C-alpha cells in the first residue's frame, strides 16, 4: 500500500482504472435510480429516488475529479466496465417499486462495501475520495424507510423480497468476482507492492461482504 | 390575466394545478433523460444527458417552490397528470441513442413552448417561475451538438429521424390538446377572467407550436 498522494506509475494506472470502474458504477446507478423512480406509487417516492440519484451523480463527479488529478482519461478508464454494469442491471431489472427499493439498498450496498474493501489498496487521497463517494449512511436510512412503508401496505410481500435480495446478492458478488479476477490492473493493485490479496484473503473479503449483506437484510426485517 | 403575485382563489387553484402539471413533467423528464443516458455510445454522451437531467430536476424544484408558496399540495397537484406523461413516454420510447437525443430536443421543446404559452395566463410570479423553468437555450445547444455528432457517424439516418420527429410532434401535441381540453382548472385559466382563449385562439397557439417545431427541425438539419 502506497500511502502517498502520488502513487508510482504502475499503481497510478491501476488506481485510474479502479476510479474509472467506480465512477461508471455511480453514473450507471444514477441512471437506474432515476429510471426506477417512475415505479413509485406516489410522487413523494419518485422525488426521494430522484434525490438519491442526484447524490450518486455527485459521487461520480468526486471520483472523476480524482481520476483527472492522477492524469487519467475518463472515457478510457470507464468504457471497459460498461458491459459489467449493463449485465448486472439487465439481470436485476426490478418488476415492482419495492423490488427497486430493495435493489437500491442491497445491490448498491454490496457495491459500496466492495469498493471500500478495494480502497485499502490505493493511495491516501484516492482512498479518501472513494470512501466519501461510498458513504451510504444517509441513503440507507431513506431506503429502509421506503421499504418499510411499502411492506406495510403489502405484508405478504416479505418472502418474495427475501428471495429477490438473495438473487441481488448473488448477481452483485458474481460481477465483483469477475472484475477482481479478470481486470489486470485490479489484480496489479490487489497483489502488488502493498498488502497481498491472495485467494484466501479474497475469500475472506467476500465473506465480509456476505456478513454485511446479512446486516442489511436484518435492517429490512427480511431473512437473509 | 391577473398580474399580481397573489392570484384570487379560483385562479390560485388553477395555477397550483398548472404548476403541478409542469413540475411532474420536469420530474418525468428527469427520469427519462437519466434512463436514456444509458443508450449513449460513449461515456461523454451519458454524462451530457445526466447533466441535462440534473437541470430538469432544478426546474422541478423551482416550480414546486412556487406551488408551495401558493399553498398548494404537491402530491395532489401532480398525481392527476401521471397518466398523461406515462402515456406520452410509453408511446415515444426511443430505440436508439439518436432517437433519444431528438426526443429530448423536439419533445421537451414542444412541452416548453406549450408551457410558456400557458404561462401568459397566470400571475406574474408564477409566470416568472415557469419561464425560468422552461428556458431551454442551453440544453438546446447541447442536444443539437449531440444530434449532429450522431448523424455524422451515420449519415443515412436522417430520413428515419425526420419521421421520428414528426411522430414526436404528433404525440406531444395530442397530449397537450388533451390536457388543454379536459382539465377543468386549465380551462378556467384559459377562458377565465383574463384574456380568453377560445377555440380559434387555441388553434393559433398550436400553429405557433408547429412553427417553432419547424425551426427546431431546421436546426437539426432535418425536414419537418
TrEMBL record, chains A, B:
Q: Which InterPro entries match?
A: Ferritin-like, Ferritin-like_SF, Ferritin_actino
**One protein family per Pfam:** MiaE_2
**UniProt superkingdom:** Bacteria
Looking at the record, the residues that make up the Ferritin-like domain are 13-192
Gene3D superfamilies recorded = 1.20.1260.10
**What is the protein's name according to its record?**
Ferritin-like domain-containing protein
Organism per entry = Nostocoides australiense Ben110
